[in-house]
């Protein structure tokens, strides 16, 4: 599985929703490419976590916007949405459990 981070946005509003007081939405745009000959099933709730700098508990996605089934040699593109502390500017995005390889990616504004 190949994972490409295309970008990220941090904002107190997302699709008509307002973030909780003291927090913002972090939208991470990415592409998953299935390099294997077998279909893959992604499980964002189990395999993707965000760790804001200074926070010890990994955060699950609040939502995600991509197909979780990827055909063999196929790809899917979309976004992960997290709710993060407003002052946070550095993050570790962690992948891995069953389908995805264990990888940590540093993100910063």
Structural write-up:
The structure is a single chain. The longest helix is centred in the middle third of the chain and has 4 residues, at 44-47. The strands form four sheets. A four-stranded antiparallel β-sheet has the order 1-4-9-7, with no helix packed on it. It is mainly β. It is built from one helix and eleven strands; from the N terminus they run E-E-E-E-E-H-E-E-E-E-E-E. Helices cover 4% and strands 55% of the residues. 19% of the residues are buried.
Please describe the structure with a list of short key phrases separated by commas or semicolons.
109 residues, mainly beta, Immunoglobulin-like, four-stranded antiparallel beta sheet, 11 strands
CATH class: Mainly Beta
Q: Determine Rg (CA atoms, Å).
A: 14 Å
Here the CATH topology equals: Immunoglobulin-like
Task: Tell me the fraction of residues in β-strands, as a range.
Answer: over 45%
**Please, how many domains?**
1
Q: Give the assembly state of these chains.
A: single chain
Helix/strand/pairing category: mainly beta
Ranges with pLDDT <50 over ≥5 residues? none
Strand order of the largest sheet: 1-4-9-7
The main pleated sheet reads as: 4 strands, antiparallel
* Order of helical and strand elements: EEEEEHEEEEEE
Label the CATH architecture. Answer: Sandwich
Task: Give me the count of strands.
Answer: 11
Mean pLDDT: 93
Compute the separation of the termini in Å.
26 Å
């Amino acid at each position: 599985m190949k994972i490409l981070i295309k970008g990220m946005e941090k904002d107190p509003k997302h699709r008509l929703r307002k973030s909780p007081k003291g927090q913002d939405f972090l939208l991470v745009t990415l592409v998953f490419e299935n390099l294997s000959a077998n279909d893959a099933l992604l499980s964002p709730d189990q395999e993707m976590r965000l760790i804001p700098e200074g926070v010890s508990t990994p955060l699950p996605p609040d939502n995600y916007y991509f197909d979780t089934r990827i055909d063999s040699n196929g790809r899917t593109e979309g976004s992960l949405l997290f709710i993060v502390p407003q002052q946070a500017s550095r993050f570790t995005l962690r992948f891995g459990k069953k389908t995805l390889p264990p990888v940590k990616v540093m993100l910063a504004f």
